[in-house]
From TrEMBL:
Residues 1-41 are annotated as: Disordered. The keyword Membrane does not apply. The gene is FILIP1L. It comes from Ictidomys tridecemlineatus. The keyword Repeat does not apply. This is Filamin A interacting protein 1 like.
Length: 200
């Protein structure tokens, strides 16, 4: 019987080039690893426009998956939040301490007021609400107006009292004059009586 491994023509067995297949497989593996590493580097460290590799079709965004786009969007959102925080800190540091005290109504270390103002900027609240000193000033203006009104009324009362006092003085002067005339007449009458008594 003939063996299956033997060649019927008696020639040497045919051998396939295993070396070339292994080499092609290794090359494909290296290309895949390079591609994966390039995608990871692009996700972590986005290169500037001048350094971005150009695809043959010019549509690099098509190569990114939805998860990659969400990841890049989250990074961009974090950068924007950090920028807003820095802007809030700088704005709070540039504000005057007197203005901060006027806004919040108490005197504390400047760091505390700056922190409150920075939180207000981040919360996007109204930066300058009604000044707390405005209300007391308005109330003080009302008190001043009432004081002026009271002062005017008191002056009117004083004028009335002064007029009454003047009239009283005139009346007293008149009474004194009448009393003096009465005393003169009384003295004359007494002298007449004395004369009559002497005559008798």
């Amino acid at each position: 019987m003939r063996s299956r491994s033997t060649n019927p023509e008696g020639s040497a067995p045919k051998q396939f080039p295993r070396h070339s297949k292994d080499q092609n497989f290794q090359n494909m593996k290296h290309k895949q690893q390079d591609k994966d590493s390039t995608i990871e580097l692009d996700e972590i460290l986005p290169c500037p426009k001048s350094e971005k590799p150009h695809n043959g079709n010019g549509h690099q965004a098509d190569d990114l998956s939805r998860d990659d786009l969400l990841f890049l969007l989250s990074i961009l959102e974090g950068e924007l939040q950090a920028r807003d925080e820095v802007i809030g800190i700088l704005k709070a540091e540039k504000m005057d301490l007197a203005l901060l005290e006027a806004q919040y109504g108490f005197v504390t270390p400047k760091k505390v007021l700056e922190a409150l103002q920075r939180d207000a900027f981040q919360a996007k609240s109204i930066p300058w609400q009604e000044d707390i000193y405005e209300k007391p000033m308005n109330e003080l203006d009302k008190v001043v107006e009432k004081h002026k009104e009271s002062h005017r009324r008191i002056l009117e009362q004083l004028l009335m009292v002064e007029k009454s006092h003047r009239q009283t003085i005139l009346q007293l002067e008149e009474e004194k004059r009448k009393h003096k005339e009465y005393m003169v007449k009384s003295d004359e009458f007494i002298s007449l009586l004395e004369q009559e008594c002497e005559r008798i």
